[in-house]
From TrEMBL:
Top EC class of this enzyme: isomerase
Occurrences of domain UDP-N-acetylglucosamine 2-epimerase (ranges): 29-356
Annotated InterPro entries: UDP_GlcNAc_Epimerase_2_dom (IPR003331), WecB-like (IPR029767)
Gene behind this protein: wecB
UniProt key word GTP-binding: no
Lineage of origin: Bacteria, Bacillati, Actinomycetota, Coriobacteriia, Eggerthellales
CDD domains to which the protein is assigned, alphabetical: GTB_UDP-GlcNAc_2-Epimerase
Organism whose genome encodes this protein: Adlercreutzia wanghongyangiae
This protein's name: UDP-N-acetylglucosamine 2-epimerase (Non-hydrolyzing)
Enzyme Commission identifier(s): 5.1.3.14
Keywords: Isomerase
Amino acid sequence: MAVKIMTVVGARPQFIKAAVVSHVLESIEGVGEEIVHTGQHYDANMSQTFFDELDIPEPKVNLGVSGGSHGQMTARMLEALESEMVARRPDAVLLYGDTNSTLAAALAAAKLHIPIVHVEAGARTHSATNPEEINRICTDHVATKLLACTKDNLENLQKENLGARAEFSGDPMYDAFVHYSSAAQQPALVSILDGEAVELPAEFYYVTCHREENAGTEEALGGLLDALCALDAPAVYPVHPRNRAAVRQRVEGGGDFSNVLFVEPVGYLESVYLVNHAKQVVTDSGGLQREAFYAGVKCTTVLDFEVWPETMVDGRNILAKPSRESILAAMSVPQSVDEGYQPFGDGKAAERIASCVVELAERQQL
């Protein structure tokens, strides 16, 4: 009897990880995968574009759950995912990362006694104010199998007495970056201010900052933009839909923002191109920190806590506050790249993940 795996995704980084693993699962005889999209990232440029360009199988269902508080979103997802799991009867559930979608799926599957594989297990910021930290910890403690992207993540799980269920798989995002870099394409940038095409400069900085603490207040957004305006080359800044109104208001309020290209969100292949060709990256994204590290491009992370300490070596990734002085100081720190240091695996994480979830699903059928 064929085994059935349900993969639950809801946000951009999960689409990327799922792409490389889904391609491996597709090649295994007797394995069927059903992708369920919670709808957490609902904008076409934040969602459908990724499925199209990464050739991911279309989701069996899009639950259309987005917006609201963390509790509201998670509750609605939990209810909807439970119904899908009851109806589809998967042999195992495959989860990625630390979103509300991940936590909701973990709770639904655990209560239905469906085995859970959690990819990117053991990542810790040690910050209780970070909503994703709650998602990570809760998911790890109910999951059946924990797959860690780095040895440090594995050690975190062992410290929490979860070592018996955990192993090192490597990072599927690294697999994806290596695989798709050869297909990366120069983006067709479009301004969010006037809808006109924007030419990509020969030299540029790549910026993605969308968290509430960095773009949700006038002071924080102002500090970020002041830093970008002071750079020696234009900053390409794809603006997250939730921050668009604040950015437009800031620009329309006056000031010279000619050094910042405020553009529509870009697809994954376009983002990979921007990472590989940028002078530096400025971000608050856990995924983009890692991609800059893979590419050997210096990164400044605008956060109060470390997400991936493995990248914070030799000046390669520096924390900064959302202020002009802090960001520019971090960007001025020189980096040194040790080509032999690669804590995220050997680029074969997808095979290990697929093998693990299939084995767990087959065991469930016995």
